[in-house]
């Protein structure tokens, strides 16, 4: 079965093959390059690598390229009209659980013997993102409940929803939260497993969107 691509932009969805019979010839999404920061000091061998000065390595934007082909110009013209200059979600059929998010910077093509080829280049976020968010539900009791939290490669700050007041202990920090929905900037889930302890009553739900390279 041939690979296909789906684009989402401006609240609409475009499926080039299903909508216009436009084929995807190829696609490329190489890993993003890390943001490296090295300092050279006189009298010292090598360099001081400070790339993780903020706690973890960061990455540059990544280029995602999609090459499409049509037996006439009309289908690709409609695809170009939909994509060019817009920020899009890009999902490939061989990797349906994840999408790339980026803007279509370039749309270049040519026509020969009624066959039109067009290459679209997107500048995307470094991580591809999960279509379905991760949910973790706990029922804290007076004695407390403990679980291990671990995200994919991308560090995330979860949305924390409580049906009753609850005390949380996580990664050396303590939080006393009331019923409702909270986003706590210091509550960061990484790809290293860490223990969460919750004490209280009601239901605790953590929700986040995983990202991988």
Q: Could you explain the architecture of this structure?
A:
The protein has 213 residues and is mainly beta. It folds into two domains: 5-126, Elongation Factor Tu (Ef-tu), domain 3; 134-212, Jelly Rolls. 8% of the residues lie in helices and 48% in strands. The protein has helices spanning 16-20, 73-83, and strands at residues 5-9, 12-14, 23-28, 38-39, 48-49, 62-70, 87-92, 98-112, 115-124, 128-130, 134-138, 145-149, 159-162, 166-170, 173-177, 180-182, 194-200, 204-208, 211-212. It is flat, with a radius of gyration of 23 Å.
Please give a quick description of this structure:
With 213 residues, the chain is mainly β.
Comma- or semicolon-separated keywords:
Jelly Rolls, 48% strand, 2 domains, 4-stranded antiparallel sheet, 9-stranded antiparallel sheet, Elongation Factor Tu (Ef-tu), domain 3, 19 strands, 213 residues
The total tally of domains equals 2
Report the major sheet: 9 strands, antiparallel
Note the beta-strand portion.
over 45%
What is the straight-line distance between the termini? 25 Å
Helix content: under 10%
The run of helices and strands is: EEHEEEEHEEEEEEEEEEEEE
Low-pLDDT parts are none
Number of helices: 2
